[in-house]
Fold this protein.
Amino acid sequence: MTPRGTKIAMFLATLVTVLTAVLAPSPAEAATPAAAPTGRVVIIGVPGLMWSDITRDGTPALWGLTSQGSAAGLSVRTTRVNTCPTDGWLTLSAGQRSRLPHGDCALPSAPILPGADSPTGAPPKGGAIAAGWPAIKTDNAGTNYHAQIGLLGDEVHRAGGRTMAVGPGAVFGAGDGGGRVDRYVESPDKVTAADWAGSTLAAVDVDDLFRAYIDAGVDPHGDQVPLSDDKRAAAAAAADRRVGQVVAGLPEGTGVLVAGLSDTGVNPHLRVAVAKGDGYGPGYMTSSATRQDGLVTLTDLTATTMKLLGLKQPKQAVGSAWKSQPSAKSAHDRIDTLMDEDVAAQAIRAVQTSFYWVLFATQLVLYGIAVIALRRLGGDRRSRARILGGTRVIALLGGAAPGASFLAGLLPWWRADHPTPVLICTVLGFAGLLTGVALAGPWRRSIVVPGLVITGVTALVLALDVMTGSSLQLNTLMGYTALVAGRFYGFGNQAFSLFAVAAILTAAWLAEYPLRKERKAIAVGVVAVIGAFTVAVDGLPAFGSDFGGVLAIVPAFAMLGLMVAGQRVSALKLALFFAAGVVIVLVISYVNAQSANPTHLGRFWQDLMDGDAWGIIVRKFNAMVNSLGYWAYTWALAAAVVFLFFVLARPTRWRVSLLQGAYEHSMTMRPAVICALTVGVIGTLVNDSGVVILSVALSLATPLMLAAGLRSLEIDLRNADTPRPAPSGSPAASTESPSAERR
């Protein structure tokens, strides 16, 4: 007889094989001919250009383009923390994050011109070949992003179009698979009307701003010599004159895209993105890649170019075309708004990493206070009650802090003269408000309700945010930033962990009340409804768009439902629940892959059908292992685990087990602890952030469990003269005789 586990594995393997055979595209579908270009596009790359550089008098050409066209902040993050000019041009070429291998952040190399030797063959007459092209292609094909350098140029040539590069960097952007451009001109002032008219795609390198930083040089320590405001303004004005030369020479109907392709030093910024032409009138821009008003990405530039040219975007180009958002605001007001966007990104970047150190260090202090409090439980009853009550308030405040860090985004704290202290006060203010609500009413006497208030508000805030555009996720302490550009919408890994744990604790503690009335069906229904809602919010592409989160949430909620129903959870059942999560996320991915603008979920399905999914899995696994090097999270995780074992769970050392006391007073405390830990562990294993997931999960769960345990001690202290029913040996029986205050 075949073992049951083997049968399940055989069934899943057969299911995947059948789906692959049925849904994989046929060879005929993959070999569609390219349509001829229907437009003409000029891409003007101005490495380092920021919105603060653009003024009516200082940069009139750029001001005019902004007034007449659509504008946005441009996230230029590629493969490094700071993006160099050649990296930016190569990213345009591939439509995927790319880099110059082993190159310093200097101006792009001069191209190979006709008459010179080239490893990829002779340059075309009047054209050029990018220097070092074979090594660049090989290196980028081997990175985690598998960028196909030359993709944009290849698509233009395949459709019968011609490419032109103006300036060295532009050759890296417009070059085809062999690094070739059909026409090369050294500078905008040397381009003729015939050159513009004869080019389907033209890329123009305006390097005056970046060159000013190169000319300033570095100090003896290797740090960039600061550029004065006057010198930067002069460099921006010089770049503007070149932009004006380009715009003045273009034929009617040419689409113009302006991009600040790179950073100018080690500190990343949001750069300039402007589009003028068909469909791009006065207003802001967004894209399906960001879903954020006034924010686009560098990889979107490739997709936008193909859209304006009327070319089909291949799957290797991962960006989305820029979309115009008409606005009645003046150019001045729009530029101010986009400048403010970068100010917010800079402000959160300055404090985000230190926030985790402060959060986890504060919680370590909290654990230390709890240890001291528990060791000083001698003395009179009133003194002990004060110690327990005060420590409980601090614990609830610690549990409220993660959710409060998102609520802080409701206020423009980054506009203050001293944004960091204002941010700290804002987070503490919201955490205090949540704690005050948790302890404001008669429910403050309950074991679970104060924690339930905090988890419920946290889960609801995060859910509503991703369902309405993820505005609180962006540039938030526990969210993501446009500068890192890992995500722009939906749940990032930290937010997923916080949301999932908050939802599980909320479901468990809401199920407490029907369980007390012996209505298990209603309790299980509560868990099922909240679980379905959580999976939908986390996994649907329109909301959380989180692949790994679904894999962790489904088994954790299924476990919670079984435990609330009084059923035993086995390893086999857990494996089946995980398999169910895999099926759900694959179905979501398949449906999303059929949409016009698939997210990373849909692209994973496409990679699965093409046989490329294994590389993605390996990359994420390696990132998960490497996450152990995030010392702020690793130390916090170790401290929380030690605290859970020695203080919350080990009775012999501290003469009292806080968790055991909470278990005796609450019917759902034990399922809540186990399932919260489960979602953290599985989330750690299936997400590339690894240990970050479990650390954030414990940053919410541990203080709230501590608060529940302290409240159980308070109740026991008050009822010391009243004999408490002895707990039974079975898990179910041990939670069925609550006292009058066990709510």
